[in-house]
From TrEMBL:
Belongs to the methyltransferase superfamily. L-isoaspartyl/D-aspartyl protein methyltransferase family. The gene is pcm. This is Protein-L-isoaspartate O-methyltransferase. The keyword Transmembrane does not apply. It comes from Legionella feeleii. One of its GO terms (molecular function) is protein-L-isoaspartate (D-aspartate) O-methyltransferase activity. The lineage of its organism: Bacteria, Pseudomonadati, Pseudomonadota, Gammaproteobacteria, Legionellales. The keyword NADP does not apply. GO terms for cellular component: cytoplasm.
Length: 255
């Protein structure tokens, strides 16, 4: 009986040893791949900067450095982390989407933030664009309609030491009068048109970015309020993105 027991122990020991060898072999292979090819996410991040941002005329080194420092994949939903550096609008809950890296970069470059501005962001989403803004201005006030987006963003922003961000939850499609006016206002979802209420929340000399239009034709537009009170608008890019939630808008009836 003891002999059979010893044999079973030897067999079990042999199996464990084989499993350990396989495990160690996998670790060694992973380390070899890392030495040969580098970290896949880091490579994707570098390629995004070279092939999307620089090719798309986002050439401000300050902005490019931000994309190099902030890990975009840590903000996106887990199921889409492998697409974090792809040229696509990553799907979010509630039929929302992230802007593409190039769209984000073009907005930041056009805003030309100097570091002294208070920025209102309408549509926090994952918090990644919020983090980018926070590195370029004095303060960001970011509002999202969905509480889970605010909670997720708060966790990520804290992890990455974005301490100059104030988050709020609510319907801010018409703006956020509570802290108005602002140096810069950014709408990250689409709106059909700009209203006087939205414009009035921008200080003279300030800027407002919004994606304006209806499917299938939308444009990312930058509007600057000049010191004489006149607005000057510029089209940055064509795109298509879901609209911001606007509970004050009357529902449309479909016959």
């Amino acid at each position: 009986m003891f002999k059979q027991y010893d044999n079973r122990r030897l067999q079990l020991f042999a199996v464990v040893q084989q499993k350990n060898k396989e495990f160690l072999a996998k670790i060694a292979l992973s380390r070899l791949k890392y030495r040969m090819y580098g970290d896949p996410m880091t490579n994707a991040q570098t390629n995004m900067i070279k092939q999307q941002l620089r090719t798309g005329d986002v050439l401000d080194e300050k902005i490019l450095n931000l994309y190099d420092l902030l890990p975009r994949h840590e903000f996106v939903p887990h199921a889409f982390q492998h697409f974090a550096y792809s040229d696509m609008q990553i799907p979010l809950a509630h039929n929302q989407r992230m802007l593409t890296p190039l769209e984000e970069g073009k907005i930041l470059q056009a805003l030309a933030l100097q570091g002294s501005e208070t920025v209102l962001e309408i549509g926090t989403g994952t918090g990644f664009f919020t983090a980018l803004l926070s590195r370029l201005c004095k303060k960001v006030i970011s509002v999202d309609y969905y509480p889970e987006f605010t909670t997720h963003a708060q966790q990520k922003l804290k992890t990455h030491h974005c301490n100059n961000v104030e988050l709020a939850t609510g319907d801010a499609c018409r703006g956020w009068l509570e802290k108005a006016p602002y140096d810069v206002v950014v709408f990250t979802g689409s709106i059909e048109s700009l209203t006087d209420t939205q414009r009035l929340q921008v200080l003279p000399g300030g800027k407002l970015f919004a994606i304006i239009g209806k499917e299938p034709v939308m444009q990312g537009q930058l509007h600057t309020l000049q010191q004489d009170g006149k607005w000057h608008g510029t089209v940055l890019f064509d795109t298509s993105i879901p609209p911001l939630i606007d509970k004050s808008k009357p529902k449309e009836f479909v016959f």
